[in-house]
Design brief:
Blueprint lengths: L6 E2 L6 E2 L3 H8 L12 H9 L17 H5 L6 H8 L15 E2 L1 H17 L2 H8 L6 H15 L12 H8 L10 E7 L11 E7 L1 H11 L27 H8 L6 E9 L2 E3 L2 E3 L1 E6 L10 E6 L9 H4 L2 H28 L1 E6 L5 E16 L6 E3 L13 E7 L6 E7 L1
Parallel strand pairs: 3-11, 6-12
Antiparallel strand pairs: 1-2, 4-5, 6-9, 7-8, 9-10, 11-12, 12-13, 14-15
């Protein structure tokens, strides 16, 4: 599509004027398959076969740079939403007998949010949610001052003055998270650690549930469920995930009437004030957005007590233990994704008309980024279909050190 008052169709080169209805009807061709005879470029090909013309070259042909030939022209956020709005996801019409039903969990989650909102005054929630990322001392000070100066008419029981009192009130409600938690134990007995640790526990939130929570934060027009049509012989990439071969292959791997749930799995290490952690997150791969609301933290990488001893961390065996723990954690998460990738997920998501419709989604792991805390190296493993048997088969991944450019090979279980 070109900029300006009028648009040009990249499939058939037809100039689309400002007639909203005709332009809207023509944009539906962007989401039709290449073998659809009603797609605009296929109709034009059939017409051109009747008339054979030989173009006359009267001036030198200007050769475009390779980049401009391979990538689409720059577009705008509003124009991309206009193109995306040409199709809407309808109610699931395929059999969901074997699919994992998460609609009941979604109902309980909505009920939990309603209970929390009724626990305190609405003015308290507006204030607290605007500063909940601050330190506990800052939150307590702000709540005390605001309540004394502006909230004297509010019921004291519905306006907590500290984060601790708020957590105590929330603790009286029925807990929700045990319904979506997974627990696995990692056997470390063969390493004979100095601390005597035989096993560690790894708890994580269901990655499917984390993906759904992040997906429900997105605007419906930000989520892609169909690949964008490509003109045969003139494929263009770079505008978004809906233009790439990975997303096209993921869509082709699911049953008709269902859609791919593109999942990204990644983790990285961070530290502050003498504390370190390695959060593990899943991201919504159906969106082109890189905002933080497309991510959901499902857990943290576990550690052994020996890591607190500097002399132990310098040993080669320490690195072996760390990578073994990470491999086992990845295997546990991928095992959950693998089961869902085979059965499918029944869930509710809003479409562009703000209607929550039941859909059948099949998880597809599209990226998994591995980061080494000590060497600052990373790699990405792409899987366009369901994961293999977690913990049984592995893939050799070559990681390059960013400092001295040395390479090492690791076995990643997928």
């Amino acid at each position: 599509m070109e900029r300006g008052s009028s648009l040009r169709c990249y499939l058939c080169d037809t100039v689309l004027r400002n007639n909203d209805q005709s332009r809207s009807n023509h944009m539906r061709n962007f989401w039709k398959s290449s073998d659809d005879p009603t797609r605009c470029d296929n109709v034009q090909i059939s017409l051109n076969r009747r008339i054979v013309t030989v173009p006359l070259i009267t001036m030198p042909v200007e050769v475009d740079p390779v980049v401009s030939m391979a990538r689409r022209r720059p577009s705008t956020w509003h124009r991309e939403r206009e193109v995306r709005s040409r199709y809407a996801v309808k109610q699931c019409e395929v059999s969901t007998v074997d699919a994992q039903d998460l609609t009941l969990i979604q109902n309980r989650w909505d009920e939990k949010l309603t209970e929390l909102s009724q626990l305190n005054d609405s003015k308290f929630w507006r204030l607290f949610l605007a500063m909940y990322t601050l330190s506990g001392t800052a939150i307590d000070s702000a709540l005390n001052v605001v309540k004394k100066m502006f909230m004297s008419e509010v019921d004291p029981k519905r306006f907590p003055i500290s984060r601790r009192s708020l957590l105590e009130k929330m603790g009286t409600l029925t807990p929700f998270w045990p319904q979506v938690l997974h627990t696995t134990r990692i056997d470390l007995s063969r390493f004979e650690l100095p601390s005597g640790t035989k096993e560690i526990c790894f708890k994580f939130v269901d990655p499917i549930w984390g993906w759904l929570v992040a997906a429900r934060r997105q605007h419906p027009l930000e989520l892609h469920w169909k690949p964008l049509a490509q003109r045969l012989g003139r494929e263009l990439y770079g505008q978004g995930i809906h233009c790439g071969q990975l997303f096209k292959h993921a869509c082709a791997s699911v049953p008709r009437g269902s859609f791919p749930m593109c999942v990204g799995l990644h983790w990285d290490g961070t530290g502050a004030h003498g504390l370190s952690s390695s959060p593990i997150c899943v991201c919504v791969g159906n969106s082109n957005s890189c905002k933080s609301d497309t991510q959901f933290c499902i857990g943290y990488m576990p550690h052994v007590p020996d890591e607190k001893k500097p002399e132990w961390t310098k040993l080669v065996s320490a690195t072996t233990v760390k990578w073994y723990i990470r491999q086992q954690c990845a295997a546990a998460i991928l095992k959950v994704l693998e089961e869902a990738a085979c059965r499918g997920i029944k869930c509710r998501l809003s479409n562009q008309h703000n209607e929550e419709v039941i859909r059948l989604l099949y998880p597809r792991l599209t990226s998994m980024n591995l980061t080494n805390l000590r060497r600052n190296v990373s790699s990405a493993c792409r899987i366009s279909s369901g994961a293999r048997s977690a913990g049984e088969e592995g893939v050799a991944v070559h990681l390059r050190n960013a400092k001295d450019m040395t390479s090492r090979t690791y076995l990643v279980y997928l």
